[in-house]
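the two lines:
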Amino acid sequence: MQLIDGKKISLEIQETIAEEVKTLLAQGKKKPHLAAILVGNDGGSETYVASKIKTCENVGFNSTLLRFPSDVSEEKLLQAVEDLNNNDDVDGFIVQLPLPKHINEHKVIEAVKPSKDVDGFHPINMGRMVLNLPAYVSATPYGIVQLLDRYNIETSGKNCVVIGRSHIVGSPMSILLAKNTKVGNCTVTLCHSKTKDLKSFTTKADIIVCALGSPEFLKADMVKEGAVVIDVGTTRVASSETKSGFKLKGDVKFDEVAPKCSYITPVPGGVGPMTIASLIMNTLLAAKKEIYK
Amino acid sequence: MQLIDGKKISLEIQETIAEEVKTLLAQGKKKPHLAAILVGNDGGSETYVASKIKTCENVGFNSTLLRFPSDVSEEKLLQAVEDLNNNDDVDGFIVQLPLPKHINEHKVIEAVKPSKDVDGFHPINMGRMVLNLPAYVSATPYGIVQLLDRYNIETSGKNCVVIGRSHIVGSPMSILLAKNTKVGNCTVTLCHSKTKDLKSFTTKADIIVCALGSPEFLKADMVKEGAVVIDVGTTRVASSETKSGFKLKGDVKFDEVAPKCSYITPVPGGVGPMTIASLIMNTLLAAKKEIYK
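prediction for all of em together
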């Protein structure tokens, strides 16, 4: 069994990007610039955004954080999006989700200029991805593709089961892995809450992507010997072992599943750190205008 | 075994739409208006477009056909698209594919205003479909959903295999059938040319959508007893039996597969006639501004 070290790969990617930034600057070009909009004071969102900003600094990007109180009006938020759309110095930006209930999340996402949508949440980027056109791929699926690629895990002709059909992970993941691309060409089965006899699918899978958000859902008897298991789950559960009072749990019962696997991602330190690497990669693509000319 | 009569369902849908048009006119509203751009003289394209225009007339729509020679410049074609985008009387329009090789097909598709893209080929409509937002769904997948719906074929929890990953049929079909919607909630496996041991997937499928364009590909030993088989193939093969000199062949070896099925679509007369019904349904949605406000 080999552990897929997302933390290490993420840092390697960041180092490569830091080098690229130096090259851009040496060519007299400007620093790539990522902006983030954060609404309210949700603990998780604060942590994620802080970590994104810090990574920007590490790789030599400019970053801007725009904060709004949780009672900000939709109109005002849309105006902030429009301002970032029109700000030529900002290459890409994100609106940290979730947004407060009085704000139409889809409306805000669709207001982001597709060429600056480095989260890949705009429908046009999702559609371009499906249609094999240049697109920003959203962070988690893109990160998983990177992991499979850098560990040289063969995907072509493999039987892959994706558990969970969320818009952000499961659905795009199932599409990406089925495409006729280098990390792709899997026969993909998308399983979800309505799937009957899930085990009959997972026990035949060469690759399992578990993205349903249910701690320790995937047990050893659901996995075949030698499978590759990618664990996307990151549920906070109360813990007396940590200072913070909680622990991150994946969707995979790691202790019993890991010994059967050829490769497995841990939680934390697997898929999680890759999402930030993806965002930074997308921002660099935006700065270099490689997706939208 | 019950035959799924696409021709009958398509006519029923057209009758319902013709009634709706009468109601719109009685309310003092204008006729829905579909325009089509046809480039060159490809026989298949001519037939398809003529049939679309005729159906428009049958249901009481206005229709406009814009013809261009096969050597039309990309610039001129894009101008025609822009004119239709700006023509308030035109509710929706299509650019009949394929286009000549010197024209960038994607560029033309992306130039169509999403709110008039009744073919559902624009990436934004594809992305909105994936994200469960209001969208024009492309004709063939939409037609298949209608057939399953009108024959009350249970899909929830069913094991569905889609063969073929084309952008226009297989990929969107696999996404639609996996969604948490009325005709949906299938566990969907998307199979393609790189799939190993295809039979091991198809023989377990409750529903098979065959969309690879290979005549009589699906044989009886690949299908389980009681399966629902949807045949999307329409390959022209030479035939001495018909006046035209060719016959349409589906992807399913009908004679041997049909007796094992609970439901099956014939070719011709199954999925084919539904594509026009879908286009007309989308045009009505456009005229009523139900997708884009």
